[in-house]
Amino acid sequence: MFLGIDLGTSGVKALLMDEAQRIVGSASASLTVSRPHHGWSEQDPADWIRATQEAIDGLKSAHPAELAAVKGIGLSGQMHGATLIDVADQVLRPCILWNDTRSAEQAARLDADPRFRALTGNIVFPGFTAPKLVWVKENEPDLFAKVAKVLLPKDYLRLWLTGEHISEMSDSAGTSWLDTGKRAWSDDLLAATDLSRAQMPALVEGTQAGGQLKADLAARWGMGASVVVAGGAGDNAASACGMGTVAEGQAFVSLGTSGVLFAANDRYLPNPESAVHAFCHALPGTWHQMGVILSATDALNWLSGVTGTPAAGLTAALGETLKAPGGVTFLPYLSGERTPHNDAAIRGALIGLSHESDPAALTQAVLEGVAFAIRDSLEALKSAGTTLDAVTAIGGGSRSHYWLKAIATALGLPVALPADGDFGAAFGAARLGLVAATGADPRQVFTAPATAQTILPDPALAEAFEEAYGRYRALYPAIRPLSH
């Protein structure tokens, strides 16, 4: 048996899989985000441990014999979080999360140093880890002086599970400290933020062993000795492992809290000017590109909160037939935006409101706004040298067929929907645990699921969507002066 643990922003999911990759069971526990100031987003790492214990204890209650047979554990996690620990491995402050924008000024200063883009292949975004440490140095200097290790969220879970300070390439590529082409920490970039390699975890590939489960936790869950903990992956790379998106030309669109257009590459293809992320994949010798928007289902959840209607109810009210874009345009920049704007200060907008703008019109605008933001990412990937023929949809938002029809038409690409099953980050993490524990060939393990349905662009609405995308594109430069 193999266990995948995915540490998300809103919860922890634990998934149990057998050696034939059949899912035996899964359990989840919720997390909350603290926003003490405008633009801040934090979590207490102790809550990650509580939620992980709760999820795995749930698996033990439902599947005790299967959990006891676990030989490998894989980790997946929300990326970019700055988890700061001292020499005694004690947490120094709440973790600063991926969608925290307080370090926009520090990120701009680092990005102005040409070494960062040259070595990392990426813009230094405010959500990345390095500018957060510069913010801590400038605003919490006494605390910065105590930092013995900087860990990404899933690697703090690894520390609890194994006692080891270890990370892997895909997650570390989102810190702005990794030489992404060489798959190694850059001493120059660390020094530019007054840190050293000694304060970084050791690096392994995602498919390699990254520690061994501590005896007390193995005993708690009824497991035997020598349970391998894999290097694992950042959440998007883990999802790619779950989806079998590991070869050149394969791609998926993820509609989670944030939105991601992910393309696998067999070579390193950086193009930071496009605001595309060029990261290491979880497999050795592979990379990937991502266009990232910060509010996907988060945008729909915002509308749900405003209207008092569950998100599923909002989308169901639109029916199944795709409509031409209406008169209302939504810009989904609720937390700023990454691709293609790299703008932490920009904020969302509803344009074109009228007396006739009922909840259905607003829902349609939100779904279209996210679809157009993903189209922005597609255009950015094209400029970075990647051509796509189709994408596969994953994430909670993919349950809305109306949304998928809008995305297919906005992108001009077929959108495949996997057959029933769980192929997300926790499943990808379990696959990584299998490879690390058994030495299996990753290419044989990371296969793609069967396709249940392919949603094609609606040719009758292609022109209307193209015109609406043009209006959408014109609005960012129009509202930018009002947000800065």
UniProtKB/TrEMBL annotation:
The segment(s) forming the Carbohydrate kinase FGGY C-terminal domain are 252-437
The UniProt entry annotates the active site at 235 (proton acceptor)
Q: What reaction does this catalyse?
A: D-xylulose + ATP = D-xylulose 5-phosphate + ADP + H(+)
Spell out the PROSITE patterns in the cross-references: FGGY_KINASES_1 (PS00933)
Judging by the UniProt lineage, the source's domain of life is Bacteria
The Carbohydrate kinase FGGY N-terminal domain covers 1-242
- Site description Important for activity, residues in chain: 6
Enumerate the Pfam families for this protein: FGGY_C, FGGY_N
Q: Which residues form a coiled coil?
A: none
Q: Which InterPro entries match?
A: ATPase_NBD (IPR043129), Carb_kinase_FGGY (IPR000577), Carb_kinase_FGGY_CS (IPR018483), FGGY_C (IPR018485), FGGY_Carb_Kinase (IPR050406), FGGY_N (IPR018484), Xylulokinase (IPR006000)
- Specify which residues bind substrate according to the UniProt entry for this protein: 79-80
PANTHER family under this entry?
A: SUGAR KINASE (PTHR43095), XYLULOSE KINASE (PTHR43095:SF6)
In terms of NCBIfam families, this protein maps to: XylB
Any idea what job this protein has? Catalyzes the phosphorylation of D-xylulose to D-xylulose 5-phosphate.
According to UniProt, the name of this protein is Xylulose kinase
